[in-house]
Amino acid sequence: MKIRNRLSIQFTLIVASILILFSASVYFFSSIYRKNEFNGRLKEKALTTAKLFIEVDQVDSALLKIIDRNAVNIMPHENILIFDTKHRELYRSDDDDTITYATSLLNKITSEKEWHFEIGSFECVGISMHARDKDYIIIAKAEDLYGRSKLKNLRLVLIIGLFFSVGATLLSGWFFSGEALKPISEVVKQVDTITGFNLNKRVGEGNRRDEIAQLAITFNRMLDRVEHAFQIQKSFISNASHELRTPLTAITGQLEVAMLKKREVAEYENLISSVLDDIRKLNTLTNGLLSIAQSDMDVQAMRMKQIRVDELLWESRQEVLKRHPDYTVLLHFPEMPADEDDLCLNGIEPLFKTAIINLMDNACKYSNSKKVDVTLIHDKRGMQITFKDEGIGIPMEEAQKIFEPFYRASNAQRFPGHGLGLALTRRTIELHQGIITISSRVNVGTTIRLEFPHIAA
């Protein structure tokens, strides 16, 4: 069911419930008022008749009947009866009324002093009265045709009004819900036109204040991220295809040339050495691509554990020096915390270690002295690791681009590499809730800083 229809029905049901409760209340209280008002009139008539019969000596039964029948305020099917304490009937205003009253009822009236009851459609009141040193029982009965007619008419009006009100509520709710949801419909139409070929298109943000405008703003922000991801993906695929094609083409060409004629053993050895070198480059590139793909995995799907950062720095240093004996990696721990747990962070050790090795290797590779200073500091803000070299530096306008896959600074083209190391490093640091910043000056050196917050206890 569409939201518009559901809102219309829900709104109608709520209003209908309120109207039904209101109508029932009006009818209920009107019914009580009618009954109380009629009983009051009936009691007043009974007392008036009884006083005339008992206290006025000039009025006998025959005269009182004439007075009752010709009274202006006579009620439909009215009959007033007067009994003595021995339950003997002393007066009956309507001789045609043959209704008799049980002794138990007369006793009930005597004990209660005033008793209201109904006989069929007739409403009755019984009163115990003391006058001229004697006790009397007065019963007055009548039918409230006028009051019941008004109540019936009120019921009809309320029912008809309820149906019309519910119908009007349903129509107005359907109309106003449509108006309220129109901006959402517009957003849906605009979103439906956005595909992978026009991700630069954005949704109208309306007044930028209400909830629908906030939804559009949030969706546009998501489109910004999606478009950025698509651009990175396109660039990544393009560069990866180029980087993979180059060594494969070289290997294919060398093998095809070798197959043209028989050659000396030395030539075959040189060919195999060259092909092996290309395969190693291809293997390095493939490993880099796989590492980047791994860093994009959902962190919840990975096995996280505590890593001792100082120990991992020593292990990374040993691996770098094992691969490149001519490199110099100096580790500095100027402020060691009292609690060893302060040197730990939650993460994936192989991935984090690869990132540290990449930073050490890059600092040495792009430095004439082949040296890097690595400093680990822990303070109230958390943990910081800095990598400082005296290498070729990075042009200011290219400092942030070097974290993109396959991007290499303009002054680093003469050095071997594929431009994957720093891209992998940034994703790894962000995966470990860290921040990576870089400051560099051409021909002076580069400092890369990693910052990590305190781990939760």
Q: What does this protein structure show overall?
A:
This protein has nine helices and twelve strands. By secondary structure, it is α+β, with helices and mostly antiparallel strands. The chain has a five-stranded antiparallel sheet with strand order 2-1-5-4-3. The chain has a five-stranded mixed sheet with strand order 7-9-10-12-11. Strand 1 (79-84) and strand 2 form a beta hairpin. Helix 8 (349-365) crosses helix 9. The longest helix has 53 residues, at 3-55. The two termini are 48 Å apart.
Mean pLDDT: 82
CATH class of the largest domain: Alpha Beta
Number of helices: 9
Outline the biggest β-sheet. 5 strands, antiparallel
Q: Could you please say which CATH topology of the largest domain applies here?
A: Heat Shock Protein 90
Q: For the record, what is the CATH homologous superfamily label of the largest domain?
A: Histidine kinase-like ATPase, C-terminal domain
Going across the biggest sheet, name each strand in turn. 2-1-5-4-3
List the secondary-structure elements in sequence, H or E.
Answer: HHEEHEEEHHHEHEEHEEHEE
**Helix percentage range:** 40-55%
Low-confidence stretches: none
CATH architecture label name of the largest domain = 2-Layer Sandwich
Rg, alpha carbons: 50 Å
The number of distinct structural domains comes to 3
Task: Using the alpha-carbon principal axes, give the shape.
Answer: rod-shaped
- Structural category is alpha+beta
Total number of beta strands? 12
Q: What is the first-to-last residue Cα distance?
A: 48 Å
Strand content: 15-25%
